[in-house]
Amino acid sequence: MSVPCVRAARENGETVRQLLADAGALSGEYEIEVVDDEIYLPLDPVANPAEIDPGLDVVDREPPRREGQTLPKDVLGFDPSYERLGDIAIVDEDDDERARRIAEAVLESDLPARTVVNRASPIEGELRVRQWDVLGGDGTETVHREHGCEFELDIAEMYFSPRLATERHRVVGGVERDERVFDMFAGVGPFIVPAAKRGAECVGVDLNEAAVEYLRRNAERNGVSDRVIAINADVRDVTGYDDWADRIVMNLPHSADGFLDTAVELAGEDCLLHYYDIQHDSDPFGPGERAIRAAAEPDYDVSIETRREVRSYAPQELNVCLDARLRRDR
């Protein structure tokens, strides 16, 4: 059977393998092959290599299947759709009987899944939490590994999307030692924990008390608790950080525009603002850029360094990021 594989030079094989492993993108069904000076790394069916690294060379190939490994499709007779977050398998099925059959097959298989859940509601409320039906296993807490960091979290208590791993890696890749990074909606720390590992001084704020507790645990878990301050509050009520930040993350699509005045207060003399938005694909960047300029000008000179489509959110809607440079106009 032909499957998508990432092709890389043999000498770069371990680096690419680690990149795919950190993103949870390696197939558990097929073997990695080395042929002459090239290595072929089979991809998980749900992986999107373009989101991991647009430069990856993806080819179709028929790698050998791992011997003796039982997969859910071997039990069911069809290939079910699911995604993994740590050792939790997540299905999205309207038919409860079908969902439970898939859960039983996942747990019976050799997949490294301890718990199977089904989405029971959309993302709801101010804390953006989803309801789950636990179909098998014993809880909704897990550890997610991403680009060399580990994040402990509970999907029943907070929002977390592993699909944004590439975007987080892009942002954090620009962080320099001794930068001051402020995440206005920090969650369990997927932006600021790796930023702190690069030597930045970081502040993370979140309204969700449980998420902030996990943020503190994750800072400790990754050895950066001395460079991370975690605050449980509405960021508009936080004091003591005016004119402080060199970099601000605003990952609250749909409503980040309501917090731009606070972001401007936090921004230092020269600050890079990562502003996330969801807009119609006819004008995905215009509303955000206008909102940023309205909040920051004339006190700051605003230049848009990057306009990036992060992913498709819904039909004709895009999740986008504007990287806006704010420089004090004196």
Automatic annotation (TrEMBL):
GO terms for biological process: tRNA N1-guanine methylation. One of its GO terms (molecular function) is tRNA (guanine(37)-N1)-methyltransferase activity. Gene3D superfamilies: 3.30.70.2580, Met-10+ protein-like domains, Vaccinia Virus protein VP39. Signal peptide: none annotated. GO terms for cellular component: cytoplasm. InterPro entries: MeTrfase_TRM5/TYW2, SAM-dependent_MTases_sf, TRM5-TYW2-like_MTfase, TRM5/TYW2-like_N, Trm5a/b_N. Its EC number is 2.1.1.228. It comes from the Archaea. Keywords: Cytoplasm, Methyltransferase, S-adenosyl-L-methionine, Transferase, tRNA processing. It holds the Pfam family TRM5-TYW2_MTfase. Residues 82-328 form the SAM-dependent methyltransferase TRM5/TYW2-type domain. This is tRNA (Guanine(37)-N(1))-methyltransferase. It comes from Natronomonas moolapensis (strain DSM 18674 / CECT 7526 / JCM 14361 / 8.8.11). The gene is trm5.
